[in-house]
Q: What sequence folds into this?
């Protein structure tokens, strides 16, 4: 009798949820291993809060300190950094160094790459918010939201992060490489912060700058978060005299749609001209 050889069985492919978890873990490890990314994205808002909180600790009226007002803006700016800036720069870098091309050639579903990026943005955003709130409460006596204000906090931060993440992914395709992405996106983000009520009281910004700021999501994130951190009497100093939470939700949701459409239309897995 001749012995029969055992038939090799193919190893089953991992399930989609496990691939998503694996990719998310890789994205988080990659982010926290890059010292520059951690310092710029995670620690810069903290440093700004410490500096501005120490230097500009004056009363705005109605018992509201500038630090209380600034908390809303710096959280919005932190979300912008963790989503739009982080995505635009990191994806452009990965496209330029061939990482995206390599990933596109593997059996990994391409959706896993984006899921990993979204998880990274979510984790970094939550870390930024938690650290800023902790420092604000411990060192600057910031009054935290209460009751339904936490729900407003959640949807403003969630919609803002989603819209900015999609916009950052789309902007990554405009840059030739990671270095040019940083040189392009960072000044743009800083300009938005200056005209969107992050470093100054929004009512003190020239009207034409307010109009320009209203075209972008950062202004609406900051305004929505001011509704969370400030008493209702402070709404009178807003351009419309109210917090405009309904309009804030519509604008941020619209940016999610626009960002998604731009991603679909512009995203590339390799640089232009690459074979």
A:
């Amino acid at each position: 009798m001749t012995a029969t050889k055992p038939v090799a069985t193919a190893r089953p492919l991992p399930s989609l949820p496990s691939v998503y978890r694996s990719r998310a873990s890789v994205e988080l490890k990659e982010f926290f291993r890059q010292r520059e990314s951690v310092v710029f994205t995670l620690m810069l808002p903290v440093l700004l809060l410490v500096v501005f909180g120490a230097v500009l600790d004056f009363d705005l009226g109605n018992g509201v300190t500038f630090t209380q007002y600034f908390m809303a803006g710096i959280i919005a700016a932190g979300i912008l950094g963790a989503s739009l800036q982080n995505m635009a720069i990191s994806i452009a870098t990965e496209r330029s160094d061939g990482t995206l091309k390599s990933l596109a050639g593997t059996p990994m579903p391409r959706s896993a790459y984006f899921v990993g990026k979204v998880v990274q943005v979510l984790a970094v955003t939550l870390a930024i918010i938690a650290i800023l709130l902790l420092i604000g409460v411990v060192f600057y006596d910031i009054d935290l939201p209460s009751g339904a204000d936490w729900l407003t906090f959640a949807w403003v931060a969630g919609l803002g992060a989603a819209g900015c993440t999609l916009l950052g992914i789309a902007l990554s395709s405009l840059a030739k490489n990671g270095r040019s992405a940083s040189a392009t996106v960072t000044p743009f983000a800083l300009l938005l912060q200056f005209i969107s009520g992050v470093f100054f009281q929004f009512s003190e910004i020239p009207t034409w700058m307010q109009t320009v700021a209203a075209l972008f999501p950062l202004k609406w994130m900051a305004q929505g978060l001011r509704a969370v951190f400030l008493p209702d009497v402070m709404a009178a100093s807003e351009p419309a005299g109210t917090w405009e939470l309904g309009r804030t939700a519509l604008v941020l949701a619209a940016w999610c749609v626009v960002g998604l459409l731009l991603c679909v239309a512009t995203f590339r897995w390799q640089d232009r001209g690459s074979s």
The chain has one domain: 16-266.
